[in-house]
Amino acid sequence: xxxxxxxxRPGRPPPDDASRGQEFxxxxxxxxxxxxxxxxxxxARLALSPQTVRRMANAGQLPALKTGKDFRYSWEAVRQCLxxxxxxxxxxxxxxxxxxxxxxxxxxxxxxxxxx
Length: 116
Prior knowledge:
Order of helices and strands: EHHEEHH
Strand content: 5-15%
Oligomer: single chain
Domain Helix-turn-helix: 36-80
Structural class: alpha+beta
GO molecular function, one term: DNA binding
Number of strands: 3
Region (Disordered): 1-34, 84-116
InterPro entries: DNA-bd_dom_put_sf (IPR009061), HTH_17 (IPR041657), SinI_DNA-bd (IPR010093)
Strand order of the largest sheet: 1-3-2
Protein name: Helix-turn-helix domain-containing protein
Distance between the termini: 64 Å
């Protein structure tokens, strides 16, 4: 007679006789805060390319949290940032970097159109 072995995967309960051979699956995906957006989600809301959004985050023009290679954004923080009055970059001594004025204007217009 062959010996029976039970394989228990980490994070899963061991199978009982009634459920032997069935897969254990999570019924609900982990909850995620709807205010926290990925780069692609924010780019879609602002009608910008993801590259422009990343460039603006790297330059400090958008509030963002770096997570590994990508960023996470709070929609409310981004909207507040884009509502601030525009500052003339020529008036400051800071070096120019990040997205240009046209991309910033499009982001502000996209944030104004998208209300949630």
